[in-house]
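The data are quoted verbatim here:
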Amino acid sequence: IPYPSYFHPSSTDEILAWQDKMAKIERPHLFSFVGAPRTDVHKAAVRDEIIKQCADSTRCNLLKCGGGGGGTSNCHDPKSVLKVMTTSHFCLQAPGDSFTRRSTFDAVVAGCIPVFFSPHTAYSQYAWYFPADPGEYSVFVDGERNGSWRMEAELMKIPAERVERMRRTIIGLIATVTYAHPNSSGYGFRDAVDVALAALSKHVDAIKSPT
């Protein structure tokens, strides 16, 4: 199931207002990355390349965590993280300590199109929550290419019309990857728990009634 994000809507109006805001907000940055370097050899190579390319690009907004200074505290500040993501068209999702990243769901809430470097970050784990066709809502860059990719060039090649379609899809997913506030009432959307329970019920029914 999805990592809990910073957004826990308590009403239909709140989720609709947030979706509308994410659809209309200005996004001056082509892409962004929120994260820290890693020591694991493979993960370090991918992350180091992402951080380098982001830092070298005038189109990227980098919030680097770790290493002292204000980066570490900012990375745990919801306002700082959302400010980076809500002002970006694409949010880079390098594998962390595990393939899954909470940042993936923060990006969805921010209406920011995720860019994955491993199919296991989302595609193989969240079939209940994301469209079957990854191209409808995300971009995939093979992290095994060892830096032969150029992030800015890869993203600049995507037509504006496709970017808008992907963003609309992402914004439409916000309700189902968030967790409604426990005191919510009259919440007119299925949240992450509702989706999981429905999928589990369907799975159990299939086991009981094999075809």
The chain has a mean pLDDT of 87. Helices lie at 12-24, 41-56, 71-75, 78-86, 102-109, 151-156, 160-177, 192-208.
